Amino acid sequence: MPRPLVIALHGSEHPGAAALADELVTLVGAELPGVQVSTAWVDARARAFCVDQLPVPELVEGEPVEGPIRTAVPELVEGELVEGPIPSPVPELVEGELVEGPIPTPVPEPVEGELVEGPIPVPVPELVEGEFAEGEPVGGDPVEGPTVVPAFLTAGYHVLEDLPALVDGGVVTGHVGPDLLDAVADRVTEAGGPGDAILLAAAGSKHAEARAEVEAAASELGVRFGVPVRVGYLYGDGASIEAAAAALIADGARDVTVATYFLADGLYTARLQGLPVARLSRPISAHPVLVDAIVQRYAHSVGTTDPLNDPAPLGAHRLGFAGGSAPSQQGCVQPVTAQGAEEFLAGVPAPEPYLLGLHLNGRRVVVAGAGAVASRRIPQLLDAGARLHVVALAASEQIRTWAATGRLTWTPREVTTADLQGAWVVLAATNDADANAQLAQAAEAQRIFCVRADDVDAGTARTPATGRSADLRVGVLSDTPNPRHTAAARTVAVEALDAWASGKEQP
Ligand SMILES: C[C@@]1(CC(=O)O)c2cc3[nH]c(cc4nc(cc5[nH]c(cc(n2)[C@H]1CCC(=O)O)[C@@](C)(CC(=O)O)[C@@H]5CCC(=O)O)C(CC(=O)O)=C4CCC(=O)O)c(CCC(=O)O)c3CC(=O)O
Ligand SMILES: NC(=O)C1=CN([C@@H]2O[C@H](COP(=O)(O)OP(=O)(O)OC[C@H]3O[C@@H](n4cnc5c(N)ncnc54)[C@H](O)[C@@H]3O)[C@@H](O)[C@H]2O)C=CC1
C-alpha cells in the first residue's frame, strides 16, 4: 500500500492556484502510478474562498490556519479529469461489498456495481479539523499517514510552523524551492530575458532565513545569466519590488526582466504589471522541474524506514543547477594541474585529506551506481547505520538483495542532482563520468561531502582502506592515492595491532 501524497500549496482566491493544484495532481500522479495524490491548501481564507466561493480579505502571510485543511480532491468520477478544488466525501470501500457511487482512484479498473477484488486502496481521507485523516485500509497493512510535500519556494512561516503543526501521523518533506532554479531560469528565457538585469520578484517573509533563500536564488540566477540580479519583495521585510526596480534602473539597467518567484499567479503577481520593466516571466506553474521535485521528495520519504525521525524531511537543501553551467569556483576541488603536480614533486607540501570518523547512524547517504565499487563500500556504510539510498540503472545481485530485505532502497533509474536532497554524504560511483561530475558539483554547492569513484580530485572526500582490531578502527589513506598499497598497509596495521593486543594480554 503506497503512502498517499499530499501536495501542500499556499492557496489563493486567484483561479491560478486551483488550476495549478489540478495540474500537479495529474502530472505528479502520472509519475507515481498507484499512489493517491491530492493537494491541500494551507491558507485558510484562500481555501474558504475556493470551497465556498466567499469573498476573502487580502491574504496576510504569517497567520495561523483555522479550521480544517481540506484536500482539493473534488468528487471523483471514473474516467473524467479532476476539475476544481471542491472536495467531496468519497465512500469507504469494503472488500467484497458492492461499490456504490463515485469510485476513488487508484482502484485498478473498478466497475460500478461489481465486486472489488484484491487489496482495497485507502479511501480519500475524511478531513478532520487540524490534522490529516488517517485511513485504515480494509484487509491491508495500516497506512502510515501521508507524505506531505510543501510546494513552497522558501521555508517561512507556513513551511516551518504552520504545516508541521497540522500534520499528524505522516511525514513532511523539505520544501521544493531549492530545486526550482532551473524552472525559474527557463521562465526567464521563455519570456525573452534576461535583458541587462533581473528583478527577482518574491512574496517575502518575516523569516530572515526564508529571505536568505531568495537572496541565494538571486545570486545563482546572476551566475547563470551573467547579469545583475536584485530581489524585490511584495510583502514582508526587505526591499520592496518597486524600490528594487528603481535601484536597478538607477544602476543603469534599461532592459530589465522580472523573474517571477511564484508558483502560480495570485494576488501578489498582479502588482508586477505596473513595474517599469521590459518583460515579466510567468510563474513557475506546473514546470516539469516542479513535478520532478515533488516526485523526488515523495520517493525519498517512502524510502525511509523511520520517516518521523528522518533528519532530512524538514531541512532546506539548496541544489545546484542540473546540467547548468556553473562557474568553476562553484565546482569541486580544482583538478590537479600540471603546475600542481610540479609543486608536489618539488617537495611543496600538498594539502592532505583530514581523517574524520563520521557518525552516520540514521543519516541519509546517497550512493549513485550499484556496481562493483558501490557493492564494496556499502557494507561499511550499513555497519555504520547509514540510511542508504542507492540510485542506479542496474544493481549488483548483492545490492538487489539488500534492497529486497529492506537494508537500503534502490531506485532503478538515472541519478539526478535532486537525489541529493537530505544527504549528508554522497558516493558518486556510476561509470558515467558526466553523471558523477554533475553530482559532485551539486554536492559541492550544497556542502555535502562527495566521493567520486572515478576522479578523486574532483570530489571532496575519499575512501580509506579500513579494518578493525579489537576495539580499534583503522583507516588508511595514502598521499598519492593508491588503493592496493593502501589496502596492503591497512592489513599490516591490523595485524600489528592484533599482535600488540595479544601481547598485552599475555602475563
Ligand atoms: C582514490 C580513491 C578514491 C575513492 O575513494 O574512490 C580510489 C580510486 C580508485 N580506485 C581504483 C581501483 C580499485 N580500487 C580498489 C580498492 C579500493 N579502493 C579504495 C580507495 C580508493 N580508490 C581511494 C584512494 C584511497 C587511498 O589510497 O588513499 C579502497 C582503499 C577503499 C574502498 O574503496 O573501499 C579499496 C580497498 C578496499 C579494501 O581492500 O579494503 C580496487 C580493488 C577491487 O576493486 O577489488 C580497484 C580495482 C582493481 C585495481 O586496480 O587494483 C581506481 C581505478 C579505476 C579504473 O581503473 O578506472 C580508482 C580511480 C583513480 O585512481 O582515479
Ligand atoms: N574508486 C574505486 O575504488 C574504483 C573506481 N572505479 C571507477 O568507478 C566507476 C564505477 O566502477 P564500478 O562500480 O566498477 O562500475 P560498474 O560498471 O560495476 O557499475 C556502474 C554502475 O553505475 C550505474 N550507472 C551508470 N550510469 C548511471 C547513471 N547515469 N545514473 C545512475 N546509475 C548509473 C550502472 O547501472 C551500475 O550500477 C568507474 O567509473 C570506474 O572507473 C572502478 C574501480 C574501483
UniProtKB/TrEMBL annotation:
Keywords: Lyase, Metal-binding, NAD, Oxidoreductase, Porphyrin biosynthesis. InterPro entries: CbiX-like, Met8-like, NAD(P)-bd_dom_sf, Sirohaem_synthase_N. The keyword Protein biosynthesis does not apply. Its EC number is 1.3.1.76. It is an enzyme of class 1 (oxidoreductase). GO terms for biological process: siroheme biosynthetic process. Pathway: Porphyrin-containing compound metabolism; siroheme biosynthesis; sirohydrochlorin from precorrin-2: step 1/1. It comes from Propioniciclava tarda. This is precorrin-2 dehydrogenase. It catalyses: precorrin-2 + NAD(+) = sirohydrochlorin + NADH + 2 H(+).
